[in-house]
Structures are given as C-alpha cells and as structure tokens.
Amino acid sequence: MGPKIREALRRKKRLEQQLAQTDGTLSTLEFQREAIENATTNAEVLRTMELAAHGMKKAYQDMDIDKVDELMADITEQQEVAQQISDAISRPVGFADDVDEDELLEELEELEQEELARELLHVGDKEEEPPVKLPSVPSTHLPAGPAPKADEDEDALKQLAEWVS
C-alpha cells in the first residue's frame, strides 16, 4: 500500500471519529433541548393550575356549604309561597265556597232517578210508528252464484293461527 492510501485511511478514521463525536454531541444537545421543553411545559402547567386554584378560592371565598344550603331552602320556601298564592288566586270567589261537592253529586243522582222513573212510567204512551215497508221475498228460485273464493289473507292468517297453537 502506498503512503497516500495510508494517509487517506488515517484521515478517514479521524473523520469517522469526529463524526461519531459530533453525532453524540448532537444527540446530547437534542435530549437537553427536549428536557428543557418538558420542564418549561411543566412549569406553565403548574402556573396555570396555581392561577385556577387562586381563582376558585377567590370565587368561593364568600361562600360555604351552609350558606348555599340556606339559600336553597329560601328558594324552595319562596316557590312554595308562590304556589300557594297561585292556588289562592285561581280559586273561584263567591258562592262556590259554600257548596259541598258531595251534596251536588247527591242532588244530581236524585234528578237522574226522577228522570228514569218518568221515562219508565211513559214507556207505553208513545205513539206507535207505522211499520217499515220491506221489499217482498222473491217467489222464484234464485240461481246460485259463483262460490266465493277464499281470501289469501284469511288462509295465511289461519295457517299462522294453526302454527302458533
């Protein structure tokens, strides 16, 4: 082998070592960059969570569960009052308060019984209506018509009924 070839091979070996070192350095830098990005993201998430917690504390600082329960009880009570007022307004005014519902039903039943008794007393008093004139029965023998065909649907229904039972 000639000296130029050996020199080229040595140079190639050095360049390969430099390339391996540079590649390792780049990998290390890339890992560091990713670690920094993750740390930055984690820090942002933590700050956002702190802001959210602070905002929630501020929103609820004047509230506690007892106050909320009391408020809900007040709302329920006011809704009941509103319903009572609505019921009072919608009730009929005047004589309707003096009438007993049972008495009304009893009186209605008596009137119905009286009407039924009157109708039964006058059953035979009605004028007889003239009999309805019907056509006379033909005196000749009628020819037999074609035998009725069984409806396909009826056959299918019969088969279905037989199958089911």
Automatic annotation (TrEMBL):
Family of the protein in this entry: Belongs to the SNF7 family.
Coiled coil: 5-32
Region (Disordered), start-end ranges: 121-154
Keyword terms: Coiled coil
Compositionally biased intervals (Basic and acidic residues): 121-131
PANTHER family named in the record: CHARGED MULTIVESICULAR BODY PROTEIN, CHARGED MULTIVESICULAR BODY PROTEIN 4A
GO CC annotation: cytoplasmic side of plasma membrane; ESCRT III complex; multivesicular body
Protein name: Charged multivesicular body protein 4A
A Gene Ontology biological process term: vesicle budding from membrane
Pfam families given in the database record: Snf7
